[in-house]
Amino acid sequence: MFSIDENNNVKLTRGDTARMRVTVKCDGQPYKLQPDEKLVLLVARAVNMPPVIKKTAPSANVFQFVPGDTSALELFRHRYTVKLVRANGDEHTIIPWSYFEICRR
User: What is the CATH number of the domain that holds 97?
Assistant: First the structure.
């Protein structure tokens, strides 16, 4: 199971495969990532803790989760965020810290 609610909270069954597409907008209009830009997704047990998952989505705006990403994670409501990282290192939050729940099979 993979779902995202209206508040960007994610539920993913532990060990499942999923694809998460992120739409980036600038002034209400779709924004196409430049070749030297990327999206970074971080999943952590809490906002101030190191990530247990770090994914990068260059240009395609799709994060791919494979079974090994979550198979060892505990069933828990982790936190996640998505940032746009520009070539010069600037970071822009696309999805502020939201919940990323690992669910039972």
Answer: 2.60.40
**What 3 state SS string does the chain have?**
CEEECCCCCEEEECCCCEEEECCCEECCEECCCCCCCEEEEEEECCCCCCEEEEEEEECCCEEEECHHHHCCCCCCEEEEEEEEECCCCCEEEEEEEEEEEEECC
Question: What type of residue is 80?
Answer: Y
Residue-number span of the structural domain to which 72 is assigned: 2-103
pTM score, two decimals? 0.93
Cα 104 from Cα 79, distance rounded (Å): 17
Q: Could you read off the pLDDT of 29-67 as tens digits, one per residue?
A: 999 998 899 999 999 999 999 999 999 997 679 999 999
